[in-house]
Amino acid sequence: MNSIDLRSDTITLPTEEMRRAMYEAEVGDDVHREDPTVNRLEELAAEVMGKEAALFTTSGTMSNLLGVLSNTRPGNEIILGSEAHMLWYEVGGASTLGGVVIRTVPNDEDGRLDPTDVEKAIRAENIHFPTSTLLCLENTHNRCGGAVLTREYTGEISGLAHQHGLLVHLDGARIFNAAVALGVPARELTAPADTVGFCLSKGLSAPVGSLFCGTKGAVERARKWRKMLGGGMRQAGVIAAAGIVAVEKMVDRLAEDHANARRLAEGLAQIPGFSVRPEKVPTNIVNFESPAKVSDFVIKIGERGVKFLSRSGRSVRAVTNRMVSAEDIEEALKRIDRLIKEAG
Predict the structure, then answer these.
(1) Count of domains forming the chain
(2) Domain boundary among 191, 224, 249
(3) Among residues of the chain, what percentage have pLDDT more than 90?
(4) 333: closest CA among 301, 303, 309?
(5) Under DSSP, is residue 195 helix (H, G, I), strand (E, B) or coil?
(6) Are residues 271 and 242 both part of a single domain?
(7) Distance CA 19, CA 88 (A)
(8) Is the pTM of this model over 0.90?
(9) Is 29 in the same domain as 88?
(10) Same domain for 221 and 263?
(11) Are 49 and 197 in contact (CB under 8 A)?
């Protein structure tokens, strides 16, 4: 029985073209800016994001942390969504290492922040208050089911932040999923933000890495912070080579993951006891509620070779990816249906 892994798109393996590129990569010392493959990847990333410069980092978490460190000072305040990945899953790095105060405003189910809430959260200048310095957005939005922020919304909320003197950092770990879903270039979605990070190692299938992009000044500040954090890599062209293939060759196929996610949601909706809204699956993340009559659903279906991620209680997350075909989705639905029927 084959295993069908829907825990995350981080489980994707590099393609054969990536492996060849890694083997043949021309390398040098990246800390001295002498790795030609890293330099090429950073130039490519800056171009596709529409920014002046880019920096190769180890992970999306590092890119987001650099977004805080390069845009704030200790004692400043950052504003982000109550469901933000930066708040939930990045070990409190912004406050622990950046020394900033984190202020949250509610995300709606589509990952957006209400401009009125954001404006109310921005501190007036007062000796008693930390200075509001940075607004953080997320596109696509992980905890909101892969929700997509449109260019119009991002422009509106970023314009509000800029009007009040705040910079904007965009957690764009899956920004290419958003671009494919909306049918626009990624740079149109990132244009309003001052800095943005995106991942190579999720749907794009590279083995490791992320890019932090912004102005030359922001990237230079981030480069020094990266060194302090232990992220100064040496012959990093070996992994950067896979990143180049990821950006150049792997974006368009994300539409397959989106179609598979929608099919999974539609299939779950037909199985008694599941609560899921297929119309709320714009990209590759499916959040659903499992039946109460099947306790420990994730464990039980895992024993049948279908892997999901448990969020809390009956809440489950599935993420489609290159390693899971349309045929795998149909097989997963059959196994789930059998489990529910056997449970009575």
Answers:
(1) 2
(2) 249
(3) 97
(4) 301
(5) strand
(6) no
(7) 33
(8) yes
(9) yes
(10) no
(11) no
